[in-house]
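Entry:
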Amino acid sequence: MTLDEQVAYLTKGCVDVVRASELRTKLERSTRTGQPLVVKVGFDPTAPDLHLGHTVLIRKMKHFQDLGHTVNYVVGSFTALIGDPTGRSRTRPPLTIGEIAQNAETYKTQIFKLLDPSKTVTRFNSEWLEPLGSSGWVKLAAKYNVAQMLERRDFKTRYEAGKPIAIHEFLYPLAQAYDSVFLKADVELGGTDQLFNLNVGRDLMPAYDLEPQIVMTTPLLEGLDGVEKMSKSLDNYVGVTDAPSEMFGKLMSVSDELMWKYYLLLTDLSSEEISQKRERVASGESHPKLAKVDLATRIVAAFHDVTAAATAAEEFDLRFARKQLPADARIVELSPEEWSSPLERRLVRCGLAESSSDARRKIAQGGVRIDGEKAVVGDPVPNDEYILQAGKLGAVKVTRHRAQ
């Protein structure tokens, strides 16, 4: 790639690049000297599984790998003991050492679904943060001040509201910054919510006679509901370990508008290719569903393989387009009264929700589909039999009882 092409490839989909001119200089120097850039990304293993929202950042790591640079995957084995205060209105409870170790092993397995293990350096930040000792931590803390910490929105809001801020929370951005110092990072990647933490590293490095790192952030990915950030707790996520058919089906429920953001952040298509595809849909030359099938196929293939993606696409077509289900699938026959009842009642009757309130929650989160289309409260009842699906509980064919 030319230098311009490298910059475009690496910054595709990024929100912040601090600073783009410095990134260009580092890339030019790397090309001239043959010395790869040191790219650092930290993950605190706070949950046992990853979802597609996490992979936005992992894909950016892969882009640097594609260009021959060294990616350091830093497991926050020490920082997770502190608890990242980002986005918190109160102190985050720290994890136990056992929880960190277990989650870290799961992360390592899942992250290599996208990254090349042979090109990834895995480090645990307890390697250098624990040996700092009391003296080292005092010296590190002396290089930053409280006024700088209170520039952080989370801290400022809590301070002005009179809510407590524990002293150890100030240590988190310092610890993350020292990761960059120790690794002599050229670039640090993170989500937009990490911009403050990443800039602390950039600010701190000159105090150790190091060139400031480039800070690059990727956007937070909305979940299947198109509103909230993708989250397992909100049940609006696609897990990287989801079965191919489940992953495909979830992605087909994404709105036509959100689909384009998924294309940008979860595929390797260039911005120009995505724009052309979007223009074809807007002009009516191509149907939105075909674009969505292509999106789902690409993502499933990335986490499984091309064959699994093709099979998942075929199963989806049989199930929702042709209204066919496997021979052993459930068929639920509804009485005339049940057939015309509200959607939440039909979900309960079909065993796809435990209660009406559970059904309403699933509908609100965008997890309910009728013949593959996202369903909402108040939708008209289909005239004929249909396939009803809710989240992970599978699909059933709904038929209407007809008097003999």
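The first helix runs from residue 3 to 11.
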